[in-house]
Amino acid sequence: MRVISGKAKGMGLFSPQGNSIRPTSDYVKESLFNLIGHDIYNAEFLDLFAGSGGVGIEALSRGAASATFIDISQKSIHLIRRNLQKTRLFENAVLLKGELPNTLKKLDGQKFDIIFLDPPYFRDFAAKMLDSILKLDILHEDGYIALEAGEFDEIPPHPSLKIFKERVYSSTKLVFMEVL
Question: How far apart are CA 2 and CA 27, in angstroms?
C-alpha cells in the first residue's frame, strides 16, 4: 500500500495485519482517483469504513481540503493515525471511531463533496448507509457518493439516487451515485 499521487506521492503506508481489514488495492484506488479527477481539489471528503485510511489519505495528498475517517475498529483508527502521521497529512484530517451508520450523527451539520463508502462485501450495509447519508443530509447538493463493492454485489436501486458511473476492476466494482 502506498500513496499514488500528490504531496505524499510514493510514500508507503502501514498495512493491516491479518484479514480483519480489507484495504482498497492500489490499482482500484488509482482507478477511483482517475475517475474522480479534479473534483478532489478542495473537496470535503468522507471515508466510511475507512480501514487503513488509504483512500482518504490519497484524497488529502491530491488536494482535498479535508478528510474525515470513520471506522468501528480501534485497530483501524490507530492504523489511520499512524499513516496520517507518516504522510504528514494529519492537519486536515478528522478521525471518528464508531459503528456506522450511527456515527454519522456526530457529523452535526457538516456536508461533504465526495463520500467514499467501502462497506464489508456480501452484507446489506450499502442500502442502510445510503439511506442514512440522505436522511442526515451530509452530501453537498452537487456532491456524489463513490461506493466500492464486490464485483457481483447487487446495489439496490434507491429512489433518491441515480447511478451515473460504474466500473468493474477484477473482483471490485466502483459505483458512483448522485442525488436526483
Answer: 11
How far apart CA 113 and CA 82 sit, in angstroms, is 25
Rounded Cα distance, 130 and 145, in Å: 9
pLDDT the model gives residue 19: 57
Does this model's pTM top 0.90? yes
In-domain check, residue 6? no
Q: How many domains does the chain have?
A: 1
Does 30 map to a domain?
yes
Q: Where are the beta strands (DSSP E) in the chain?
A: 44-48, 66-71, 93-97, 112-117, 139-150, 161-169, 172-179
Each residue's pLDDT tens digit, 6-45 = 999 999 999 877 655 667 888 999 999 999 999 999 999 9
Beta-bridge partners for 166: 175
Say how far apart CA 114 and CA 122 lie, in whole Å. 23
The closest of 65, 60, 171 to 112, measured between CA atoms, is: 65
Q: Give me the pLDDT at residue 119, please.
A: 87
Spatial neighbors of 141 by CB under 8 A, at least 6 apart, are: 179
Contacts of 63 (CB under 8 A, 6+ apart): 6, 40, 41, 42
